Amino acid sequence: MFPIEACDQKQDVDGTACASARLLLPATEYILGIADLTGELMRLAIFSLGVGDTELPFELCAFLRQLFDGFLAIGNQASREVSRKTFTLKQSLKKVENACYTLQVRGSEIPKHMLADIFNEPDNEESNDGN
Q1: Structural contact between residues 25 and 4, judged by C-beta atoms closer than 8 angstroms
Q2: E-strand stretches of 12-91
Q3: CA pseudo-torsion sign 39, 41, 43, 49
Q4: What residues pair up with 18 in beta bridges, in sequence order?
Q5: Quick one: CA dihedral 63, 122, 112, 108, positive or negative?
Q6: What are the pLDDT digits (tens) for 72-129?
Q7: What is each CA distance from 106 to 11, 49, 61, 95, 109, in whole angstroms?
Q8: Alpha-carbon gap, residue 18 to 1, rounded angstroms
């Protein structure tokens, strides 16, 4: 169990201390929450490319790699849910890495106002149904 402490922002009348609360969270739930965060970070990276920010995706990619390495260190010691989330994290990391690669290799060819179109188009493999 991870203790999570929160402090209510309201101070007592005399301005001394604030009331605090303590929440015990199972380790698996904490890890699953971090895994869910990685999906949101992937969305942030792709969105930031769409609005022309070309630095944030590289920072997020490095951070996602570190998280993925951490999840790999956990290995099979955690629940099946954590294994599924690790697979999803790997997919999110791959998407951000592909976007960063495209930006690094072809970034000078793509005007900033067109970045959103490039990264929001479906991949050719996904849109091709084999015909």
Answers
A1: yes
A2: 18-25
A3: negative
A4: 11
A5: positive
A6: 888 777 678 888 888 999 999 999 999 999 888 876 676 666 666 666 666 544 444 4
A7: 54, 13, 18, 16, 5
A8: 24
